[in-house]
Amino acid sequence: MASDPSRGPAARRPDEVPPPPTHVARFAVPPDHPALPGHFPGHPVVPGVVLLDRVAEAARMAFGLGPLRGLPRTKFAAPVLPGQDVRVVLTLLAPGRVGFACEADGRPAAAGDMAFTA
User: Model's pTM, two decimal places?
Assistant: First the structure.
């Protein structure tokens, strides 16, 4: 069936919409990281601020973003332990806005949105 040129360009079907840009990063916080002593003695846990700093750095590098402006939405699902393999999926949601989902050794650990200066 031929298309009718008088109807203008065909609208994209939902299954043809390209996905937003994504990037996958991996890292581990070493057991000798300076933020670990005292957090918590005998049972070290990676502080949330350290985890989010690593995620923000990965997002800045992946998408060429400026400094972090804020965290409109962040949820921690499980602790991250020193030395655990952290996998983060970053999705560019809008200019300066990145969604993230972290897994530690395959388990959900944290997710949310970050806002950056362009």
Answer: 0.84
Closest CA to 45 of 114, 109, 90: 109
Average pLDDT (46-50) is 98
Q: Which long-range contacts (CB under 8 A, 24 or more apart) does 96-100 make?
A: 96/65, 96/66, 96/69, 98/59, 98/63, 98/65, 100/55, 100/59
- pLDDT single digits (tens) 24-39: 999 999 999 999 998 9
Give, in order, the Cα–Cα distances in Å from 10 to each of 14, 45, 64.
Answer: 12, 53, 33
Neighbouring CB atoms inside 10 A of 71's CB total: 14
What is d(CA 33, CA 50) in angstroms, rounded to the nearest whole number? 10
Q: What is the pLDDT of residues 55-78, one digit of tens each?
A: 999 999 999 999 999 999 999 999
Q: What are phi and psi of 93, to 5 degrees?
A: -85, -35
Angle among Cα 62, 67, 73 to the nearest 5 degrees reads: 80
Tell me the domains of the chain and their CATH numbers.
Answer: 20-116 (3.10.129.10)
